[in-house]
Amino acid sequence: MKALVNLMKYTGVMLVCLICSNVTIAQTQQKFKVFKKNPVPIVNNKLGIEYTSDPYEATKLDYHDFKEQGESRWAATKGDWYLKYKKMFDFRCKEPFLGGGVKYTKNDYRKTGYRFRLVNNQIIEDSIQFLINKYYYNNNDTLKKWNLAIGNSEPTNEKIIKRLGLEHFKFVITVFDSKKNSYFIDVPEAEQANDEMVVMRVFKYPADVDILLYNFEINNWEYVESVTVSGDHELELYVLQKFEPRYLKDCELKDEVKDK
After folding, report:
1. For residue 66, what are the contacts with CB-CB under 8 A and spacing of at least 6?
2. Residue 20 pLDDT > 80, yes or no?
3. I need a labelling partner for 203 at 20 to 30 A (CA). Which of 44, 63, 180, 237 fits?
4. For 63-88, how does the pLDDT look when each residue is reduced to its tens digit (9 = 90+)?
């Protein structure tokens, strides 16, 4: 009888754990409102059009450019004023994420957003900058010693990434409806010599965002799904959880520091 009572207690504890586990999984799955668009957006990625969406293009977020301007010896306004504009973004997981956009073939309209270059291990990611430095600061003889390809043209991100192996990379682009979810801010500190005002695009939330993944076999972006998010941090959490969870460790560290 005692053994039966203990078994019932044990079974009860197991049921509670299973229920809690199922609730947690359900909550995780319901964290993002994910849906499919119809018709599916198709990207115009042909050369010669007004705007191409090259995944290898290293377009920086605006505040990264502002940082370089503030550090430049020729800058009209020196200093860390870029931090004011960085606060308008809430990325916490892995920087730098990139600015980017696509031009859909249907209705021929242009959409902008953020591009994520995701790498499946840290060694490959560290090698990107290593190879860039080797190419730019060494002659052909040294490159041969490193078993690196030589040529007259300067190395491109595409060449370096392909050398490291496309199987290690995922390019994801998150595309906003520009008319509904974007606005511009004047940046007087970054004013150019010709007195043209510099502007920065900022996205408004909540927003429905199209998610596209680059397919190396067809050399174009493929629509995955759309998601409703409340901010930059929630958007990057969605992208990383779905495509490359290893970056989430960086999120946890930054969130712990922020909470303190």
Report:
1. 81, 82, 85, 187, 189, 190
2. no
3. 44
4. 888 898 888 888 778 889 999 999 99
User: pTM for the whole thing?
Assistant: 0.77
Amino acid at 42: I
109 within 8 A of 103, measured Cβ to Cβ: yes
Q: Which two tokens stand for residue 55?
A: 């995944």
The greatest distance separating any two alpha carbons of the chain, rounded to the nearest whole angstrom, comes to 91
Q: Which two tokens stand for residue 117?
A: 């270059």
User: Is-contact 110 177, C-beta < 8 A?
Assistant: no
Q: Helix 248-259 vs helix 232-243: angle between axes, to the nearest 10 degrees?
A: 150
3-state secondary structure the chain: CHHHHHHHHHHHHHHHHHHHHHHHHHHHHCCCEEECCCCCCCECCCCCCCCCCCCCCCCECHHHHHHHHHHCCCCCCCCCCHHHHHCCCCCCCCCCCEEEEEEECHHHCEEEEEEEEEECCHHHHHHHHHHHHHHHHCCHHHHHHCCCCCCCCCCCHHHHHHHHCHHHEEEEEEECCHHHHEEEEEEHHHCCCCCCCEEEEEECCCEEEEEEEEECCCCEEEEEEEEEECCHHHHHHHHHHHHCHHHHHHHHHHHHHHHC
